[in-house]
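Can't paste images in this forum, so I'm doing it all in text. The chain is below; anyone willing to post the predicted structure tokens underneath?
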Amino acid sequence: MGVVSCTDFNKVKEIGKQMLQMILGLYMKSLLIAAVLMILASLGWFLFRLIKKKDRTMQERQEVLFDLLIINVMTIPILSFGVVGILLMLRV
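Text version of the structure:
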């Protein structure tokens, strides 16, 4: 076994830092993509309900908006991990 120098540890540390930055950058991109996709889908669903006159009162429309907001808050982080996987596969 050879002696491991301090410069080897610094190289490993630098490579680890670069990998972490790459993964964090991909996650931030995927979070933005997932947020845009979910907002567009929610907006489309709300406009569809508005055009078809599914909700008669303002209270019903407000309830649908709150439901869509909760769905978006819960779905965006999950969807972003899927988008990270796709971005990683495209990157390789």
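The chain has two helices and no strands. Residues 20 and 26 are 10 Å apart (CA to CA).
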